[in-house]
Amino acid sequence: MMILTARLPGVSFWLDVEQDPTEKGMRHGVRNSKDVLIYLTEGLIESKYCQMEMRWALEFEKNIILVIETDERHGKPSIEKLIALCPPDLKHIFADNVIIPWYRDPAFREISVEKIIRARSVKKAGPTVMAESTTKLKFMTRSKSSDSGGGDVFDWTFVYFTVLCGVALPGAGTKTKVWSVAVRIILLTCGFMCLSRIFTTEGPAFWDTGTIVQIVVAHPIIFLFLHVTLTILKSPLIADLLENRIDAPVEAKILRLKTRIGTCMAALLTVSLSFWGWAAYLPAFFDMYYLESTSQQRPATLLLFGLATASRGF
């Protein structure tokens, strides 16, 4: 336990023999755990309490990690005997999970520790196969805000705001992902249209070259921001923060409030700057210089360019 604690700072550990030894206490411990590590030793499978904990782990769909003792002096078991003595409803645990050997020799112990860490909260792609971590962020939807139990960290306002901005959060649906791709395409298209203004210097909608260059450069910055934001939200660091370092509902509630305040401020700033930009940017494209370009014997393409660029602003 001390070795794992040193390797996983900030992670809370619950040891059944050191906590409430009652059936209610053990059930509570398993229910509120993210992973359930079962240390296989001689006679363990015959224990009524160990069998109950294994059943609770299955009932609550916990990630089960099997670790087996390798030193006969400390109760090394026979895996065949363990499986034979195991109740029928628990036998599949041994087939569905990799059994990690625990080496007491310091030279090999690090291998065991590393395997245990890698086995934490992974999705099983099949028997004895471990896939990439699928830890989901604790998002809150508006319909569930009243019964979330205090475990959600991201308020529903954050979820909807990021979706509107084209950020497909982990676990997002197909429509949201399609919209996210569409936002990127729109953003790139806008960038190319702004770039074209450098070569079209006619009319009141034209600004100086330096300003246009700044506008063009802003598009890849926004595109990069969307990509980086999604990468950060999917990172193991955020997953570890949410799953292992926020244990109390009170902490989650405080963070949820801060998330809502920050999201509301970001939304207000976004809307304000958008209207400000449109007020200064769009009117020039509706100037008669463009609308009457044909009658004034100017290229008709100016009218199309003006209308296309104005629609881009919307």
UniProtKB/TrEMBL annotation:
Coiled coil: none annotated. The chain crosses the membrane at residues 153-169, 181-200, 212-233, 261-281. The keyword Membrane applies. InterPro entries: Toll_tir_struct_dom_sf. The keyword Oxidoreductase does not apply. Keywords: Membrane, Transmembrane, Transmembrane helix. This is TIR domain-containing protein.
